[in-house]
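User: Run a structure prediction on this.
Assistant: Running it now.
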Amino acid sequence: MILVTGGAGFIGSNFVLDWLAASDEPLLNLDKLTYAGNPANLASLAGDARHIFVRGDIGDAALVARLLAEHRPRAIVNFAAESHVDRSIHGAEDFMATNVTGTFRLLEAVRAYWRSLPEGERAAFRFLHVSTDEVYGSLAPDAPAFTEQHRYEPNSPYSASKAASDHLVRAWLHTHGLPVVTTNCSNNYGPYHFPEKLIPLMIVNALAGEPLPVYGDGQQVRDWLYVQDHCAALRRVLAAGRVGETYNIGGHNERTNLQIVHAICEALDALRPRADGQSYRVQITHVTDRPGHDRRYAIDAGKMERELGWRPQETFETGLRKTIAWYLAHPDWVAGVQSGAYRDWVAKQYGQREAETAQ
């Protein structure tokens, strides 16, 4: 058995579904079910004895210790994190509580459990910590992509909290010998993505006839990774990654935010045309840029290819088509996550910026 934390969130739930599609090994799923943790992501696993779900916080040391003792996992895959940059700007405390303090408490519980294992199980045990490329900061337009040796330069409360969690994981390796592996991924997209992030927000707003808010000039560059490619990479790291190593996982797909929005509009123009015959591009609205917005991220995933033989299978075009098709086919899922709290958040975040732009 393995333990997955944050397995009801976007990447975590995709990993859980991918794991159980590829393996009969059972999986214990621990998730706090905050706004982005959605049990509906896992509805297809109802009644599947291989999936054990527990609602709980990685910061609850007693709960984690009890689950470890009861289920005796051979590995931990840690997705649990607050992950939205804009939310961290408006309220950083939850990010510090989960990403820093929560990671510390999880590491301590896992360390105690790991030390109690028989020698053979202790040697085989792994703690896989899933992190982000945002810890590296911002790249100049012509700078080489991030490698695993790039210095940490986080620029938002979110990325600072993730950088702190990465440092804690490293420290528990070097101080206590805990067999850890860290991954830093680029921007993921795909099914079950909470619709406050760029790609699902644009799809959902376009179909609803609402503005497509683009920060600033829209020239911020990101490397886009289809989530199922990410899941395959994580399975490979868990199986063959070297203890103490960091592996960068990227999609080899650098695009500006405006290019992303245009691509979504063009795809929807073909798949679900507007009633008035116009392109969805007429809904694009430029709003005031967010504070400290990093200009460019790019991942050099060469180490993953050289050492572990992994490469992404999806191009951006094929991944985006699959993503849009999924959202068109799952309007009930979208409606379910658009609670009053979600609508209030979008109105606060983007409505305020539209007003600022108009001034």
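The chain has a mean pLDDT of 92.
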